[in-house]
Write a structure and sequence with these properties.
Largest sheet: 5 strands, antiparallel
Shape: globular
Structural class: mainly beta
Helix content: under 10%
Organism: Flavobacterium aurantiibacter
Keywords: Signal
Strand order of the largest sheet: 2-5-6-7-8
Protein name: DUF4426 domain-containing protein
Number of strands: 11
Strand content: over 45%
Number of domains: 1
Amino acid sequence: MANKTILAFTAVCLLFACKSAPSYSKVNPLTTCEVDFKCSETLHKNASLEFKMAEYANSTATIVEQQESLVVELTKDKIVEKGIQDANYREHFLIQLADPKKTVGVSAVQKFVFGKFCYCKGEAGYFEVTDFEVSYTSNGKVGRYVITYSVPNSKIQKQKIEFELR
């Protein structure tokens, strides 16, 4: 009888001790979208980033299928009046995170690509961001990322982007 009691007690303890990993299905940007911009967000599950560096702003960033990670895609498009040439401006953030069932938090950020598209000579294109710091908090259901980043060889230094995964 004592063995069955110990076995049942152990099973109940293990059941409550196991904390399930978060399974995110939505991204919620926390960085404010400026008044004259349209912002959008997408969470790509089972995806990763492929970045190909090229000269003269011809670098490419592609989202491809992969089981072990997910990609957060955030976009800011400037709203411009029709008929105004060369006024378009767009920022595109692509952040690859490890599978939340295996890794969460600061070490989850695997790749970060920033895209800037405008009539701005020498500043347009995709850039791999290697200079960034990540802060992460979680309440078990919502994971909050704050990333401070600098884009190499550009005027974009020490900027911040924030988002939650739910």
